[in-house]
């Protein structure tokens, strides 16, 4: 019996072979963005790498990410162990990096609906449009050159402009 998802057989994620002590360090660094792209091109949309005595599963497939981040009986928004990727950055007082069952999350979300109302958004929309529009030139240029870049730093700076 075989299980198919999207006409494809389920298989364990593939990745580069680890070397003793260094594991996959040299497969990833120093150009981790370019090297991850190369690994995804080689092994597919879900890859498995070993680094610093940990195993990481990475995806560039939005459908896989949607399944992984969906709260269900198999996945939770709350880190359950020190090996969870969000364990080190979780903050019980933060708006987006806390457990959805924490009192801070419930308290903060009392204020979110008014701040996201049509009236409030109408006030913020010109700033959002200006910041977003200013990013198009940079994104178009990187696309034309075929460059990969760390989008986290860029989006953090973009969000800070708004």
From TrEMBL:
Pfam families: p450
Domain of life: Eukaryota
InterPro entries: Cyt_P450, Cyt_P450_sf
Single annotated GO MF: iron ion binding
Name of the molecule in the record: Cytochrome P450
The organism of origin for this protein: Cochliobolus heterostrophus (strain C4 / ATCC 48331 / race T) (Southern corn leaf blight fungus)
Taxonomy of the source species: Eukaryota, Fungi, Dikarya, Ascomycota, Pezizomycotina
């Amino acid at each position: 019996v075989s299980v198919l998802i999207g006409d494809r057989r389920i298989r364990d994620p593939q990745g580069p072979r680890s070397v003793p002590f260094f594991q996959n360090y040299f497969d990833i660094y120093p150009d981790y963005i370019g090297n991850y792209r190369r690994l995804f091109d080689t092994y597919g949309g879900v890859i498995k790498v070993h680094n610093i005595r940990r195993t990481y599963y990475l995806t560039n497939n939005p459908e896989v990410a949607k399944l992984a981040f969906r709260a269900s009986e198999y996945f939770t928004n709350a880190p359950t162990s020190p090996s969870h990727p969000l364990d080190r950055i979780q903050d019980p007082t933060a708006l987006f990096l806390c457990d959805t069952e924490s009192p801070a999350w419930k308290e903060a979300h009392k204020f979110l609906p008014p701040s996201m109302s049509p009236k409030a958004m109408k006030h913020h929309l010109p700033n959002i449009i200006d910041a977003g529009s200013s990013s198009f030139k940079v994104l178009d240029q990187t696309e034309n050159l075929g460059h990969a870049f760390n989008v986290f730093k860029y989006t953090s700076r973009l969000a800070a402009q708004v």
